[in-house]
Design a protein that fits this description.
By secondary structure, this protein is an all-beta fold. Helices cover 0% and strands 41% of the residues. It contains no helices and 34 strands.
Length: 347
């Protein structure tokens, strides 16, 4: 791997002075992970390498890779539970995945956290998110968004797509073929109105002459989850349930059959299902969890194998880049992170 801009000079944990924000604190469900798990051996797992920082410390943001570029959008950038128009970013930037270079500022979008960001055929798609409407120092008025937009690098412009069937945040989004899948989350309606939890997976075929959203049931109701896809299956990992309990479960959707099955639960500690990160490398699911451990799904799907260690964090992102994963941003010990780490995972 070429050294270039990605290699940092020191092993310094890059934190901001601000803290992350979450609507609910994790409450372990008391059940812990189930199924076969290979326990990590202390000191045996490779350590991630610290790379150059994100443009700003952020958590609950969007990240995607397309045509050799890493794109990042938005996120929470203010102290814990401080929700206002100043708390959430709409900044959008990209940087080359390999070689030297600087972050390039791109056209911003509506400030949002808890959104989905995916890439397809070189373009970047932004899906939903949460946006505070209140000014700093005034009562919170947090609302989920139904906006969906496509960024075209050729024109450097965002274009609106059909909005979600219902506003959604604290969800995730993935691509399989030409179809965009949106899973989990909730609809914060602001103004003291009750929250609506998403009960369906919404699907938009980007190849259709006139794309129209369709919906299918999902066998879970939770948020603060993460999703990844390997081309035939979608993995929905962790999150919170409606009782604010941390979920270690993994749900697997077979796209061709339209069926759901249960995968092996996440390994590790009681909070490892809260705000994990996931990506698919070489056709295998890789997850990064709260305690800093990184695991890969076994080839037969029966359990997990530890493949490395990174800095502990939550509500962060994993982005696959050839035979490595980039571990981006997130939050730890009350601070948002601009920390980027790289971990080789092989294929």
């Amino acid at each position: 791997m070429k050294a270039g801009w990605w290699v940092a000079a020191t092993w310094t944990l890059a934190m901001s002075a601000t803290a992350t924000g979450h609507f609910l604190s994790p409450v372990p469900d008391g059940r812990g992970p189930q199924g076969p798990v290979t326990a990590p051996t202390e000191g045996a797992a490779p350590r991630a390498t610290v790379l150059a920082a994100l443009p700003e410390p952020t958590s609950s943001f969007g990240a995607a890779a397309a045509d050799g570029w890493l794109y990042v959008f938005g996120g929470h950038v203010s102290p814990t539970h401080a929700y206002s128009t100043a708390a959430v970013s709409g900044h959008f930037a990209r940087r080359r995945l390999r070689g030297d270079g600087a972050w390039e500022t791109l056209p911003a979008g509506p400030p949002a956290q808890g959104l989905g960001l995916v890439a397809h055929q070189g373009r970047v798609y932004r899906v939903g998110g949460m946006q505070p409407r209140n000014e700093p120092g005034t009562p919170p008025d947090t609302r989920s968004l139904d906006v969906v937009a496509r960024f075209d690098p050729a024109t450097h412009a965002w274009n609106a797509l059909p909005p979600l069937p219902a506003a959604r945040s604290s969800h995730d989004a993935v691509m399989v073929g030409s179809r965009l899948f949106v899973l989990g989350g909730w609809n914060l309606r602001g103004g003291g109105r009750s929250t609506e939890w998403a009960a369906t997976m919404d699907i938009l075929d980007l190849a259709a002459a006139t794309p129209v959203w369709t919906s299918v049931p999902q066998p879970f109701t939770r948020r603060a989850l993460i999703a990844a896809a390997d081309g035939t299956r979608i993995y929905v990992v962790g999150g919170f349930d409606q009782q604010s309990r941390v979920v270690h479960g993994v749900d697997v959707y077979d796209v061709a059959r339209g069926t759901w099955t249960a995968g092996p639960a996440l390994p590790g500690g009681p909070n490892n299902g809260f705000g994990p990160a996931a990506a698919v490398v070489g056709g295998r699911l890789v997850v990064s969890v709260d305690d800093g451990s990184v695991h890969r799904l076994r080839t037969d799907g029966s359990g997990w194998e530890p493949i490395g260690r990174a800095s502990p964090r939550i509500v962060h992102r994993l982005v696959a880049d050839d035979d490595r994963v980039l571990i981006l941003g997130g939050a730890r010990a009350g601070a948002n992170l601009d920390l980027v780490e790289s971990l080789p995972v092989g294929r």
